[in-house]
Each structure stands twice: as C-alpha cells, then as structure tokens.
Amino acid sequence: MIPLQLGRMSPAETERMLAFDRDHIWHPYAPMPATAPALPVVSADGVRLTLADGTELIDGMSSWWAAIHGYNHPKLNAAVTGQLGKMAHVMFGGLTHPPAVRLAERLVELTPEPLTKVFFADSGSVAVEVAIKMAMQYWRSQGRPERRRLLTVRGGYHGDTFGDMAVADPFNGMHREFSDVLARHVFAPVPPLGYTADPDQAYIDEVAKLAAEHVHELAGIIAEPIVQGAGGMRFYAPEYLRALRDIADEHGLLLVLDEIATGFGRTGELWGCDHAEVVPDIMSVGKALTGGYMTMAATLCTDRVAHGITSGSAGALMHGPTFMANPLAAAVASASIDLLLSRDWRTEVDTIEAVLTSELSGAEELPGVADVRVLGAIGVVEAREPVDMAAVQDLATAHGVWLRPFGKLIYTMPPYVCTEDEVAHIGSALHAIAESLQPSA
C-alpha cells in the first residue's frame, strides 16, 4: 500500500506509487496508460511544491490558476479546520447555513452591482453550464423556446461538460473531437489579438451583422472577458467586450461572461469585465474562489434574469448539485476573498506583470517564438509550432519551476504572493525554454 501520510518517500515507494498511477489513474487530457510519468508531489508550502525526492519547484501555474495565495496558508487552513469541527456538509435543498450566506454576501458586494442572485456550483465547468441553462431557461419562461442558441467567438474555452464544449471553438479547440454531437451555436471570428491594439471596426461590424442575422434564435452572447484562457491564452482589447455588450443591448440578448479564469484579480482588475467597464447579465466565477483549496464555483445573475426564469412554468431554475454550497468550500472561499482584499493584491499583480515583461524581453525575436504577451499575472510564450510537453516540463523543472504547456503555448500564472525574485525565476525559466525552441526546417 502507498503510505497515506506522505513525506519524503524512498525511491522504492515512489516507483510503486508512480507505477500504479501510470496504469490505473486518468490524468487531465492524458492517455491510459500514461505515456509520460507524473511528478510525485508530497507537500506544498508557500509557492513551492516538494517532490518525493525532496526537490522543490516554484509553482508557476498556481494549480491551474487557483492557488493565488500559495499553499498551506494559515488563515485558509484555519477556515477549513474551524468549519470542519461544525459541519463538513449538509444538503442545500431546503436547508441553508452561515458559510453559504456569508459567501453569497461577499460575492454580491464584489461583483458588478446588478448581479444580486447567486447559484453555487461545484466546479467552474458546472458554473458555466448553469449560466448557459439560465440564459436558455429565461427565454423559455418568456414563451420564446426557439431562442436557444448562443453567439460566441472562436478561440474560446469554457469547460469540459457538453454545454460548455458546445460554446468552445468547434474546429480548433480541445473538444473538436465531439463537434458532431454538440449543440450548434453561432461563432464569430477570433477577436483580434492585443490588449492595447486599436480596435478593428470591421471586426465589430462583422460580429454585429452575425448577431442581427440570428437574433430570432439567440438567447445571448457568451465570452471570456479580455483573456481567452485554455483556448489559446489570447488577450484582446476592451473595446471588443464593450461591443458585445452593445450588441446584446441592441437585440435584447443576455450577456454571459465566463470569469472562471479571469476573476479575482488575475488580469490586473478584480474582474475581467472591469477592463471594459461593462456589466454582464450572468457571470460565472471559480478557480481562485477558494484560493485553490477546494472545488467550488458560482454563477451570479441579475434580478431580471432570476425573476424571468422563475416566472416560467417550471417555477425554478432546473439545476441542483449534490454538493451545492458545501460548507467547507464556502468557508474557505470567504476566507480567501478576505485574504485577497486584506492585501494590496493590485500591486502584487502589477509587480508580476512588470517582472515577467522584463524577463521575457527579447524572447519574441527568437527563431522558435511566434509571440510573447503579458497581462496582469499572466505571461505567455507562443511557439511557432506545437511544443514537446515532456521536454518543456523537463527543462522547466531543471530550472526549479513547475510549468504545464499545451499546444504551442508555454505560459505562467504565478501565485500573487510570489516575491519579485520568485517571479524572476519563473520568467528566466520561460526565457530559457523560449531559447530552446527551434522551428522545423
């Protein structure tokens, strides 16, 4: 048996664990059995992961963008253990509890003012699924069931469930394998690249025309604000997000924003939509919500949406996860929000942006690099060709950093609590990887 209390492990114990892992455990977007070994993490503290052999790596990924405060934080630990002594879980159907109410209060306070209703989900994918369901059920309740499609842009990613996959890029995204069985939505071209780029009015006109052509069947517009995450780590100008709001208003459509990856300060503003000073009708949040401690997400909507749904024949939003509003997750989520707001998180994120920009300077001129971009606490090196994931990870770990590339992208989203030296260390590793990239002849 693998020891349950993991500390530094012997080589034999490590090999036994990795052999079982390889042959029996699925990992994200990985074959079975695995063709590359996973790194065995036995503990994490601050911004460092400790492997079974004692090696320490700076986590440049924040556990897929969630662990913004780092690991083993005493205030977050206390929130979990304090709640554990009272109640680990209770069903949310017909019951409520203080952690859920407090968290909902915090979310209503922090999100744009019209978002007053909170639905708790158990993952970011489910939160977006709920957002899609809200938009569609709203129109069904208004006697317009034909308005069941969404307008979105190519290059997006919204999660791995079927509703989410259907609004991701159907041809170039990770879920193109399922394009023939997914709901058919309306796709505009990928937004022009560049947060500070001048807006292309022709592009905006093209999206507006597409919306006008399909307005009779559209329930709303869905997008990731400012940053398209796992679909390509692309940054686009705030003017395009404002245009989506204007188009939605012109046709009475609901604007749905997926803030799972962009929320809680990652882009340099508290919410991605703050860059454009727009307010969505429905918004999903997750990832950093609990500081990376537990899986939890939420979908917020306006009074108009909530009342519109409830006025229909169903009389309720038809969704209800078993672990909805889990007290442990709600307690640590409130503590994570309090911790974020107690620090100068904006300066932390601005510092990460400045250091990454400095460390990656000149990388865009390397022969294997197509583009380098930094926004907030996000740094991206885009290769000219798909990278060898295992080779990139080996090079990163040799530099004492954990990174997880995909496709042509080598990127970092560090914990906000990284020191300047730690961010520089991550940036240096990224630059070294960029130097190693060689385009094919």
UniProtKB/TrEMBL annotation:
Q: Which residues carry this modification: N6-(pyridoxal phosphate)lysine?
A: 287
Q: What is its main location?
A: cytoplasm
Instruction: Please list the residues that bind substrate.
Output: 64, 157, 287, 320, 404
- Quick check: keyword Membrane in the entry? no
The coenzyme or cofactor needed here is: pyridoxal 5'-phosphate
Q: Where in the cell is it found?
A: Cytoplasm
Q: Where is this site: Participates in the substrate recognition with KAPA and in a stacking interaction with the adenine ring of SAM?
A: 29
**What's one GO BP annotation on this UniProt entry?**
biotin biosynthetic process
To which pathway does this protein belong? Cofactor biosynthesis; biotin biosynthesis; 7,8-diaminononanoate from 8-amino-7-oxononanoate (SAM route): step 1/1
Q: InterPro entries from the entry?
A: Aminotrans_3 (IPR005814), Aminotrans_3_PPA_site (IPR049704), BioA (IPR005815), PyrdxlP-dep_Trfase (IPR015424), PyrdxlP-dep_Trfase_major (IPR015421), PyrdxlP-dep_Trfase_small (IPR015422)
Question: Which UniProt keyword terms apply here?
Answer: Aminotransferase, Biotin biosynthesis, Cytoplasm, Pyridoxal phosphate, S-adenosyl-L-methionine, Transferase
This enzyme's EC code(s): 2.6.1.62
Q: Which reaction does it catalyse?
A: (8S)-8-amino-7-oxononanoate + S-adenosyl-L-methionine = S-adenosyl-4-methylsulfanyl-2-oxobutanoate + (7R,8S)-7,8-diammoniononanoate
Function of the molecule: Catalyzes the transfer of the alpha-amino group from S-adenosyl-L-methionine (SAM) to 7-keto-8-aminopelargonic acid (KAPA) to form 7,8-diaminopelargonic acid (DAPA). It is the only aminotransferase known to utilize SAM as an amino donor.
- Subunit composition and interactions: Homodimer.
Q: Which family does it belong to?
A: Belongs to the class-III pyridoxal-phosphate-dependent aminotransferase family. BioA subfamily.
Instruction: Kindly provide the name given to this protein in its UniProt entry.
Output: Adenosylmethionine-8-amino-7-oxononanoate aminotransferase
Give the organism the record lists.
Actinomadura montaniterrae
